[in-house]
Amino acid sequence: MNIVIVGHVDHGKSTVIGRLLADTGSLPEGKLEQIKELCRRNSKPFEYAFLLDALKDERSQGITIDSARCFFHTKKRKYIIIDAPGHVEFLKNMVSGAARAEAALLVIDASEGVRENSRRHGYMLSLLGIKQIAVLINKMDLAGWSKEVYADIKKEYAEFLSEISLTPSAFIPVSAREGDNIAARSDNMPWYTGMTVLEALDSFVEKTEGENLPFRMPVQDVYKFTAWGDNRRIIAGTVESGAVSVGEELVFYPSGKRTTVATVEVWNAPPKTRAKCGEATGFTIGEQIYVRRGEIATKAGEPAPHVSTRFSANVFWLGKNPLVTGKKYFIKIGTAKVEANIESIKSVLDSSTLEKRPGNYIGRNDVGEVVVSCVKPVAFDTSAELEATSRFVIVDEYEISGGGIITEALADENEYTRELVIRRNMHWDHSEILSTVRAERYGQKPAIIIITGARATAKKTIARKLERKLFDAGRSAYFLGMGNLLYGIAAEIKTPGVVPERGEHIRRLGEVANIMLDAGLILIVTAAELTASDIEVITMTASPENMLVVWLGSEITTDIHCDLHIPAEDVTDEYIESATEAIRAKMRSEGIIF
Questions:
Q1: Does residue 427 fall inside a structural domain?
Q2: Across-strand partners of 478?
Q3: Is the CB of residue 48 less than 8 Å from the CB of residue 32?
Q4: In what order do the strands lie in the sheet with 132-138?
Q5: 501 shares a domain with 439
Q6: How would you class 316 by CB atoms within 10 Å of its CB: exposed for 0-12, middle for 13-18, buried for 19 or more?
């Protein structure tokens, strides 16, 4: 079991762990004597904390800087215990340590009482979904073993924890330095008849219930093998909750694609037919579909995750610069990493007093309620549904600067389109000819080449020339002008004199592209001045493994992100030829044609 120990600086966390290691006989032989001799040579009093604080600057300053991990065991089970730093400057390391824990010990100095970080750490444990907590009121020897001091701290902190929906299993008066109530009951506090620290640890329940939750496995990667005739494509990741067996039907989100588990694959271990919560695993699939890192594998028939570009969340901010609206950040949920911004800050919470206040930024070490807007859809659960897939971190300028939990999924402008795509994928009849076989036959990967940009830049001429060159080289390519779609598959919404339904036109273009890609073709599309929103709809609908966006024109006049920008001053034959060759060269460099 993973246990984290937290609390204000100098309240004795490391000493508690040192005592646990020593009193359970879990130290390497001679380690205790080695540290005592080191202290004697340096004329320093021996501290049990020195058994844990291995970093030189930690020993010299007497504070824990990074999350240290150590191991000990009782008669009941083995433990990994994480000593998280208590100093306000090292809260980031405390969060990273606590995120791996199933339960927590929270230490309060009896002589100092409840401090700001005592409240802050309690709130962070709540934020991370850690419900199993024992509170240790330490240094009772300095408080004269007073029952009244213990009772006052217990009353104050219990009231605080109840406000954040935490109920500790025990409040234990201890002296870590003297060993009272750590592994053995204290003779100095006969008025206390509750559990010792070891008994409290053994009372915690292991998270076996994870197997009974809905299946969730964020896709880490897809591994392909070709040597010795091995043609497996293994979808790999760590099972966050639930379990999956061979033959069961999977649904991947946000794409909504379906397939079945053909085999469960494990590295350097006997074959198995089932993967369960907590296991790093992989599986091959029956019907070959294209999935990518960042999607979440789920089981058909179980509650599905939410898919949206917007959600409400509680965030804890640790960055040097404040969290503000309108700035570009990256959100990492599971294995997905997506650009995002803070759409609004609903409130800022003082994590020490739990008082809410309005605000237009969230400062360092503050907690806030925000609305996050992502540039593309992500799959997630809310914290009330599944903890593991509701957590995320925020990256600010290459550094993880905050984290949070999702409290509510919010609607976005493409919700209807996404529902149509998921419904289509659930009923899609797959061909028996694999996409890899088509690629080998055609000498190409299925792809969408989108040629957009300013008007009067010869987009159609270049597209047709590209199609001809690819065809003459033995490729399977098809040029689709928007007019073909507007007066064909979208004819009923192209009404003269009425503003056309652009969004639906783009969605139908994506559906056509989806069929072309499934056939293994290269689809070349032209349209004037497409936007980032248009590309998002095409990507959502067609889910292309390969897409190349080309902008023709001197300036990019929309918010689109393009893979290739070809300025156009004068539209001449030389310009058309060079633009065509530039696109073809880009296709080769991207591995679309080979």
A1: no
A2: 523
A3: no
A4: 68-73, 78-83, 2-7, 103-109, 132-138, 170-173
A5: yes
A6: buried
Over residues 231-255, the pLDDT tens digits come to 778 999 999 999 999 999 999 999 8
For residues 295 and 313, state if they share a domain: no
Name every residue whose Cβ is closer than 8 Å to that of residue 437 and which is 6 or more positions away in sequence: none
Is the model's pLDDT at 137 over the cut of 90? Answer: yes
> How many domains, in total, are found in the chain?
4
Residue partners of 480: CB distance under 8 A and separation at least 6: 509, 512, 523, 524, 525
Strands 103-109 and 132-138: parallel
Comparing CA positions, the residue from 41, 8, 5, 9 lying closest to residue 21 is 5
The set of residues, in sequence order, having a beta carbon less than 8 Å from that of 552 and lying 6+ positions away, is 451, 452, 453, 454, 457, 458, 459, 462, 566, 568, 579
- CA atoms of 371 and 356, how far apart (whole Å): 16
49 neighbors 144 (Cβ within 8 angstroms):
no
Q: Which residues pair with 189 in a beta bridge?
A: none
Give the predicted TM-score (pTM) of the model.
0.69
Residue type for position 504: E
SS3 (DSSP) at 233: strand
- Whether residue 594 is contained in a domain is answered as no
